[in-house]
Amino acid sequence: MLGAAALTALTTVTAPSASAAVAPPGGSSWDHTWSGDGVKVYVKEHGDVISVCDTSANGHSAWVLVMDISVDKTAYELKATGGKGTCASHTASEGGRYNLAENHRIALNFEGRGLQGSYYVSFVNDH
């Protein structure tokens, strides 16, 4: 019975509260964060970490399109497909298209309402 009590206590400690903000795993030191209806995007320039989180139970996945506008090239699209509270991420350590060029302007087109209007932001990848 002691094992069951310990498991219950552990579950209670690690379970998120209903009011907890949606955030991707891997820390909280983000260089940029942007929000829109049903979506939140996080960027950590060092390591080219891009994360998208679904923040609304609206039946639509949150997504972000990552583009290198310095060379007019789409890098990749990323979707959080598990519903509200889920996130998806890519990092430079995955190589190839996920390793964004230094000192290039990176644009993000993101949305979380089922193609009902998207948001557009950009930053210079200089870290």
Brief description of this entry?
The chain has 127 residues and is mostly beta strands. It has one helix at residues 2-14, and strands at residues 32-36, 39-44, 49-54, 62-68, 73-80, 87-90, 105-111, 119-124. The protein has one domain: Immunoglobulin-like (Sandwich).
Characterise the protein shown here.
There is one protein chain. It is globular, with a radius of gyration of 17 Å. The longest helix has 13 residues, at about 1-15. It is built from 1 helix and 8 strands; from the N terminus they run H-E-E-E-E-E-E-E-E. It has a single domain (about 30-125), classed as Immunoglobulin-like, CATH 2.60.40. It has one helix at about 1-15; strands at about 30-35, 40-45, 50-55, 60-70, 75-80, 85-90, 105-110, 120-125. The protein has about 130 residues and is mostly beta strands. A hairpin with a 4-residue loop joins strand 4 and strand 5.
